[in-house]
């Protein structure tokens, strides 16, 4: 047991759910722990703020529980700080007993098919960043395509397809900023096609997301009855998962019902594997898919039958990937920090780097839901606390908790705070209230900082 009488001081890098859950577990532990929660953005909450579709306020309710954690006096939020630029990993070790990295995953995974880089072909994450008002992404979006393809049968693919199939006015009641509404109001899409290479028992939707597609009067959800097929492995997958069985039932329901009268068609195509984005003069004009069939083991094989779908835009929703953290090893194949379940490992993947830990998607990849994030954070924080009890953590060079504030001030970094978030939150709610909405997001980075920085300078 460490003989130090000082609180254990931990820096958590990334103020999304993973970082906040890890902070909460550390604070609630039997140890005396104080946490500084660093965030690259001016505002906290990560993908809950910038990765959840604006017409899903149900999921955004998670913010309330995260908010309660950030209200705790043992936690200090330091936003608008980029590790590797404003402060380096080696420097953090001089101010904290331990550092936990929970930087998440926001970049789009690659899809290596011909034509994927054509004009009109996008990563789903880029579009999500746009419509969620993330200041790091585009402020306007060309939505002139009348026929659109979305590649990927997960929840992100459904979110993108649903936003593309809705009208701008349907979404104006949400928290979207004016620039997003202006683009969505010009959306010309009438047909949105979602493509997956396997069958209904392998689709990665959650039942609620799939069911909610039909809640809009402007969307006719279509599934071809020929796309409903199961082999023995598929039937077993249904038996072993109530959620997957519900997904299959919903897809069957869409396939069997009479068409709904609506101005937009959203068709889910199963057993269609994208093989090429078709182009003319460098721009998207179609998507070529190969028909697949079940192989008896839950997988699929190609049939040699190809279809060209006339589309003018393609969105790939094939998953996110994490970006490297400057100063730390990185697994370029898995896009994670090499780790043993909590400790960050050296470049050889053999030895833990003292005092450095990982949790969330940067640790295990972009899979799982909120429940997985909580259990993942517990695994990491248990390791950290065990190391502290065993005296394995090196005391920081700078013992004063406010020494880090002195460093940030000296470097002229306009860091934001939790008190600042209350000001930013209030400004967004006030802007929304004027239009009968709960909030309207502020999308300009500098304006966010003006509201939320430690010494506020009121927005002009």
Secondary structure: elements and pairs:
Layout: E1 8-13, H1 17-28, E2 33-39, H2 46-50, H3 57-60, H4 62-70, E3 75-79, H5 89-95, E4 98-101, E5 107-108, E6 121-123, H6 124-131, E7 147-151, H7 155-165, H8 168-172, H9 178-184, E8 191-195, H10 207-212, E9 219-223, H11 232-240, H12 242-256, E10 264-269, E11 272-280, E12 283-294, E13 300-309, E14 313-316, E15 320-321, E16 343-345, E17 352-358, H13 361-364, H14 370-389, H15 403-410, H16 418-433, H17 445-452
Parallel strand pairs: 1-2, 1-4, 2-3, 4-17, 6-14, 7-8, 7-14, 8-10, 9-10
Antiparallel strand pairs: 5-15, 11-12, 12-13, 16-17
Helix pairs in contact: 1-14, 6-7, 11-12
Please report the first level of CATH classification, the CATH class of the largest domain: Alpha Beta
Mean pLDDT across all amino acids? 94
* Major pleated sheet: 6 strands, mixed
CATH topology of the largest domain: FAD/NAD(P)-binding domain
Shape: globular
> What Rg is obtained from the alpha carbons, in whole angstroms?
24 Å
Termini Cα gap:
53 Å
- Tally of separate domains: 2
Structural class by secondary-structure content: alpha/beta
Number of strands: 17
Number of separate helices: 17
CATH homologous superfamily grouping of the largest domain: FAD/NAD(P)-binding domain
Low-pLDDT stretches: 456-460
Taking strands numbered 1, 2, ... along the chain, how are they ordered across the largest sheet? Answer: 3-2-1-4-17-16
Helix content: 25-40%
